[in-house]
Amino acid sequence: MGIFDIFKSKRIHPTRVRTMAEFDALVLDSREPVIVDVWSASCAPCRMLEPILIDIATRYEGRVRVVEIGTQDSESQLLGSLEVRATPTLIMFKDGEEVGRAAGARPAGWFDQMIAAEFGV
Asked: Is 51 a catalytic residue?
């Protein structure tokens, strides 16, 4: 493996958000559109989404931000403000406003279509 191969294999993971302050800074104040993944460790569909979201975060780096909020380790105020009833829940934000929401796992192609439709990216 050459030095340039390291850069080709770089993977971007979703940014973990645990507090209202982090949510405000990374989601509501973001210049980039944001996909928020609310997940639970005991949720099998949530685990299926993990590699898809890493791929989306990697391919759309600098154009779309991906963040994750775990139900077990996040402030209850944050979780309550999002009004999530099931995991996984995906919430899309643009310019600090919610523009879409989907419950349940989604295939990789859905994200590309949604990003083009909702974010124009």
From this structure: no
3-class DSSP assignment, residue 35: strand
Dihedrals phi, psi of 96, to nearest 5 degrees: 80, 5
Of 20, 43, 79, 105, which residue is the catalytic one? 43
Confidence of residue 5 (pLDDT cuts 50, 70, 90): low
Q: Which of 46, 56, 57, 64 is catalytic?
A: 46
The confidence band for 10, taking pLDDT boundaries of 50, 70 and 90, is confident
Q: What is the pTM of this model?
A: 0.90
In the annotation, is 62 catalytic? no
- The Cα–Cα gap between 107 and 114 comes to 11
On the question of pLDDT at 54 being above 80, the answer is: yes
Q: What's at 106, amino acid-wise?
A: R
Q: Which CATH superfamily is domain 12-119 in?
A: Glutaredoxin (3.40.30.10)
